[in-house]
Amino acid sequence: MEKKVSLKDIAHHLGVSVALVSYVLNGKEKQARVGAEMAEKVRRAARELNYRPNLVARSLQSGKTRTIGLIVADISNPFFSSIARIIEDQAKKLGYVVIFGSSDENDEKQQDLIEVFLNRKVDAFIISPAVNTEKQIISLQKMGIPVVLIDRYFKEQWVDVVHSNNHAAAEQAVSQLVRNGRKKIAMVAYDSPLQHMEERRAGYKAALEAGNLGFRPEWLVPVAYTRMDRDVREGLGKLLEPLQIDAVFFATNSLATAGLRRINEAGLKIPQDLALISFDENEAFDFFYAPVTYISQSLDTIGKEAVEVVVDRINGSRKAPVNKIVEAKLVVRESCGSRK
Amino acid sequence: MEKKVSLKDIAHHLGVSVALVSYVLNGKEKQARVGAEMAEKVRRAARELNYRPNLVARSLQSGKTRTIGLIVADISNPFFSSIARIIEDQAKKLGYVVIFGSSDENDEKQQDLIEVFLNRKVDAFIISPAVNTEKQIISLQKMGIPVVLIDRYFKEQWVDVVHSNNHAAAEQAVSQLVRNGRKKIAMVAYDSPLQHMEERRAGYKAALEAGNLGFRPEWLVPVAYTRMDRDVREGLGKLLEPLQIDAVFFATNSLATAGLRRINEAGLKIPQDLALISFDENEAFDFFYAPVTYISQSLDTIGKEAVEVVVDRINGSRKAPVNKIVEAKLVVRESCGSRK
DNA sequence: AATTTTTACTTAAACGTTTAAGCATTTTAT
DNA sequence: ATAAAATGCTTAAACGTTTAAGTAAAAATT
Question: Do A306 and A318 meet the contact criterion of CB atoms below 8 Å apart?
């Protein structure tokens, strides 16, 4: 059980002041005019005693923890864990550490997490916000804590956000279905008022208009976050048995996997009976008998950019609000079935 | 931009000492014999000024951060992100927060992470260790920092560990293949000396013996962590084209998905041409045309238990080394194909 | 009435850093 | 030879808590 070594221990050991040691170990020997040989002695002692700076103490003094709080809906969702990985790497590169929490799409849980993280003095937040949490974000901003939203965002642009071009990507996906001759295209989407979802729905409608298909409300299956499985089973089920549609567009990968289960149950053949496309990636899509066409968001870009923006904010560089839009691309595979 | 409120601010505001305020807000008014009305005044002031304790300062004073460092191979791997979620929840319940890092199976990266976390004074570690990192773990123990290993472990039992019954589970899986009439059963496993992998291999061999099949080294495909895709493609490929086996057992879900891709390329039909079983779950297994039989580890139990053990260690309760073995169960589906 | 006990607070040190300011020496400039 | 500047350190305060020890006044005991 080795003792913790502090600056004081080194100072004692050498018979000098704590300040002297601190200056040297922080590379401020020049400014502080520490003698060359003394500096060397200090460095050697630090090495020999195996000194490790206590970052808690440093944080108390500096007011900075070099910690970023990451809040997502569910870290076990591959979408979020993938992005968490990118954020972790980028943060580490910049000398930051990430603490994370899952909100389960619940505004109270999110508020809880924010408070816990605030008490721990995170320097900034990266949040994929739950529904109805604008005030939470605003409140953080009022406190002067940098926040960057990822993936999801609110209507008005008063906070930094990094997201995909949801409208265009959704429109492109649905257009692909139209181009492939589908006329009765449904969409399964969360009933969320969050802007990313609004835009995916809007993109869907726009593509229908463009294809002269007209939007039919009964083909837009609304799903509540809290009853995801049930809503998909029942809502989509109604359109499948008997089969009233010839294509489905899923607004997220979790909706798609739930939907695929239901489709399999109904015994439908993809893409013959039904064409489909999903927003977001999922390894499972590769192994479906008709590999699923999907919209690939650049998690890499989103994660990296989010960290960069938030660190710039911490450092006070960057003034204007950031609204970084990342291109998503359609990966076309069998499931969207051109009936050639 | 609201000012940060400290105990001192409240004390000033009421014209009392900081200590008084601290006692009250920590519920120590009885021991400290603070007057009832004064206590009330303090609480009210705290509420009105919106006081939030600075946990950094508290940590410096107490030497405890109520933070657990979680190190896994890759947080974006569904196995680890699922367990991370469980750990997060359980930790939160006990008043802890989790900071995480991915080692990428690399001992130096793992050492890096440990050092970063140590400097930040995490109270304990939960680690799924990379190969060749015994000394790192031993060193933590010498420092008196609690560590619990999950999933992976070393030969000698000198550190707390929570893991599945790898040997038995693997044996059970392979036995299932034997029972279903398979005679030429291969295994794809990491060439890792880590004990969990050793045991999975040993379980495979034991089942072969028990089935009087005999172990053939060329059917045990070794995969290096650093060249996973290549090794699976080439190593397994050799056995598939031309087809020399009638079943494969994959030692992890990542190996299985890589293997499935190769199997699809070879145009083999599951389970007719080849039966298969994987260790670990993966959503993709559900969507394979022949749903994949797999060994389901109880991530829930592993995660919860790990947190509990580690928190007990922090609190000094629990003295004997913990070696918690969690039952894994075989989920039988089409891919292991009884040729009925 | 004098002593002890209890009550209701305050003082002060400590946790491990950082950093402005201070103070002898020594060196350089005049 | 003296003043000014440079060198090489130290002192001390601060960050926001916690908590042992101290103190003065009021209440209880003798």
Answer: no
> What does the pLDDT look like over B201-212, one tens digit per residue?
999 999 999 999
Peptide bond into A242 cis (omega under 30): yes
Q: Specify the pairing of strand B275-279 against strand B293-296.
A: parallel
Residue A32, CB, less than 7 Å from strand C?
A: yes
Q: Residue B2's pLDDT is what?
A: 59
Tokens 């939007």 belong to which residue?
A: A215
| DSSP structure string for A56-112 | HHHHHHHS---EEEEEES-TTSHHHHHHHHHHHHHHHHTT-EEEEEE-TT-HHHHHH
**Quick check: A101 and B121 CB within 8 A?**
no
> Please, are residues B192 and B201 in contact by the beta-carbon 8 Å criterion?
no
Q: What single-letter amino acid sits at B41?
A: K
CA A18 to chain centre: 43
Those nucleotides of strand C lying less than 7 Å from any protein Cβ are 7-12, 14-21
Distance from CA of A104 to the nearest CA of B (A): 11
With tokens 């990822």, the residue in question is: A150
Map residue A336 onto helix, strand or coil: helix
Peptide bond between residue B146 and the one before it cis (omega within 30 degrees of 0): no
- pLDDT the model gives residue A267: 95
Q: What are phi and psi of B101, to 5 degrees?
A: -155, 150
CB atoms within 10 A of CB B14: 16
- Which amino acid belongs to residue A49? L
pTM of the model: 0.95
**Chain B residues lying within 8 Å of A1, measured CB to CB:** 142-144
A58: nt with nearest C1' to CA: C17
CB A330 within 8 A of CB A172: yes
| Of B203, B229, B210, the residue nearest B220 (C-alpha) | B203
* Pairwise CB contact (< 8 Å): A116 & B102: no
H-state helical runs in B15-147: 18-25, 36-48, 55-62, 78-93, 107-119, 134-142
A243 CB contact with strand D at below 7 Å: no
Contact A40, A14 (CB under 8 A): no
- Check CB contact of A65 with chain B, cutoff 8 Å: yes
List, for residues A114-155, the tens digit of each pLDDT value: 999 999 999 999 999 999 999 999 999 999 999 999 999 999
DSSP string, B167-212: HHHHHHHHHHHHHTT--SEEEEEE---SHHHHHHHHHHHHHHHHTT
List the one residue out of A128, A151, A90 whose CA is nearest residue A297.
A151
Please check whether residue A81 is in contact with residue B75, taking contact to mean a CB–CB distance below 8 angstroms. Answer: yes
CB atoms within 10 A of CB B1: 7
Q: B56 and A120: CB-CB below 8 Å?
A: yes
| Cα radius of gyration rounded to whole Å, chain A | 26
Across the beta sheet with B247-250, the strand order is B220-223, B185-190, B247-250, B275-279, B293-296, B329-331
Check: CB of residue B90 under 8 Å from CB of residue B307: yes
pLDDT at residue B340 above 50? no
- Bridge partners (DSSP) listed for residue A278: A250, A294
Buried (b) or exposed (e) across A102-128, using 16+ Cβ within 10 A?
Answer: bbbbbbebbbebbebbbebbbbbbbbb
Q: Which of residues 19-78 of B touch strand D (CB under 7 A)?
A: 19, 22-23, 25-26, 28, 32, 51-54, 57-58, 60-62
Maximum C-alpha span of chain A: 87
